[in-house]
Amino acid sequence: MPFLQRLGSFRYSFRFRLFIIFTLGTTLTTFFLTATYIIRGKNEIREHTTERARLLLTVLADNARLPLFGNDRAMLQRLAEETAQQPDVTGVQINNSDGVVMADIHHGAIVSGMISESLKITSHVEETPHLLAMTEDKDPIPLGEVRVSLDTSRLDSSIRQMAASITLYATTFWLIVITISYLGLNRLSLSYRKLMEGLATMRAGNLETRIPVDGNDEPSQATRSVNELAEALQQREADNKLLQEKLINAMRIQVQEEKQQIMAKLIQTNRMTSLGLLVSSMAHEISNPNGAIRLDGNFLGNMLRDMLPHIEDITREDSDFTISGMRIDDLREELFRAHKNIIRSTDRIESVIKDLRAYSLGANTPHARDIDMNRVVRGALTIIRAHGHVTHSTIREDLSPELPTIHGSHHQLEQLVVNLLLNALQSLPVQGGKVTICTNSAPETNEILIHISDTGVGIPPEDRARLYEPFFSTRFESGGSGLGLYISNFIIGEHGGRLEFESEVGVGTTVVMHLPLPLPDHSV
Questions:
Q1: CA nearest 342: which of 386, 411, 295?
Q2: CA-CA distance, 38 to 98, in Å (whole number)?
Q3: Best CA proximity match to 276, nearest among 362, 192, 195, 341
Q4: Which helix (H) or strand (E) holds 398?
């Protein structure tokens, strides 16, 4: 790492903050101790100089006492000169008790910073009792005053030298302490540096890194916690990766399922298109023979009406005359009933063909007024029973006698009821069951309700969302086409109604047809 980069990283490190705090602390402490020591040394030197001046004064006062008493100027001058010979003494002055200068010696000019001390001289001294004997006064007799001045220039130089030495020693001590503290902090923060380096590596995404632990101090304990956290995060990352793989696989499966569903819908669309073409073709193919059957039926009816008078003449001539073992009265009734059935069946076939064409072309079937739903239900039951769908099962009717009429297509509504009855019958077990159909009105909602209940196997919850899906059936093996409820939902939607299912597996199913009643002055 370059030096500048290392310096920049060091400036923002925890070690740098500790070093700065310790350096400032030691600097202030060293400065305070040095200043205190210098001031104390300066004061001690000044006190020593003052004590020296006082000692000189005491000696000079003892020696000058007798000369002052005898006014011996020469002796006093000699004593002053001897005292002035002492080092740093710049001036000596001796005054008598009247303040008269008896001796005065000065060396050099008077400068500021000198130390000047004075001392009063009295006669009260044990070594000179004969002086006291010459006076009647027993109190000390003032004899004069001595004054000594000392030069402090050398004192200031000594103080400066002392301060410089102390400062040098303090600075050396400070540098040594700072160096030792830096090395100690460097050693102390080694665990923190390893911890931070490990955290930086983990933050970069390498959770396999483990920080070495050297001791049992706080940083080492924090390092152990970080290692445990990294291990937990690594395990969590592995779990997340496994979950992501499972999620991706699940999404792939879901996409594949959705793709299959889309393909199934495309296939269903194609089948519906093909069904439309087939329906159109079948309608065309069935329409021609149905027209021929209807034409021949009308022809046979006309022939029957023309032949009946001749047959009656033959019967009057021969009372035992029969045709196919039937007498003429029974034959007439059967022939006219057969003719009516042929015409009615061809009408039904023609109606079915029209509906198929309308469905394949997307056209709407015209609705008629005053459709009796009880009659529709009875017609549907006749069709169901005629085709043999009721064998081991029971169908119970409960039709309201005062059911209002509605607007709609008789044939489509009949087909709707047939489809729902077939579904109910096909859901019954093999050993048999019961289907109930009832009609009633709901004035509060302005509707006609038709309930069809069965005691069959019920509808599983997972299949209820797909009830109206074309080509969806759980009974393909028993002849189901998957179009019954799809067409039923289309028919009831064309009539503005809706279907409602209630089912319980193993108990049975109830489907309710909601058909709206016509509004007043409603046109077809």
A1: 295
A2: 44
A3: 362
A4: strand 394-399
- 3-class SS shares of the chain: helix, strand, coil, % to 5: 60, 15, 25
Q: In this predicted model, what pLDDT tens digit does every residue of 95-151 receive, in sequence order? A: 888 888 888 888 765 555 677 888 888 875 444 444 445 555 556 788 888 888 887
Angstrom distance (rounded) from CA 158 to CA 88:
13
What φ, ψ does residue 115 adopt, rounded to 5°? -105, 125
Residues in contact with 313: Cβ distance below 8 Å, sequence separation at least 6, in sequence order: none
Contacts of 410 by beta carbon, 8 Å cutoff, 6+ apart: 368, 371, 376
DSSP state, residue 216? S
Q: How many CB atoms lie within 10 A of CB 148?
A: 27
How far apart CA 283 and CA 349 sit, in angstroms, is: 9
Q: How many beta carbons lie within 10 A of that of residue 163, not counting itself?
A: 17
Question: What DSSP character marks residue 283?
Answer: H
Sheet with 101-106: strands ordered across: 101-106, 89-96, 142-150, 115-122
Distance between start and end Cα atoms, the chain = 94
Element (H, E) at 88: none
Phi/psi at 516 (nearest 5 deg)?
-75, 145
pTM listed for this prediction: 0.39
Closest C-alpha among 79, 52, 78 to residue 63: 79
Give Cα separations from 375 to 365, 381, 399, 404, 489 (angstroms): 19, 10, 10, 12, 21
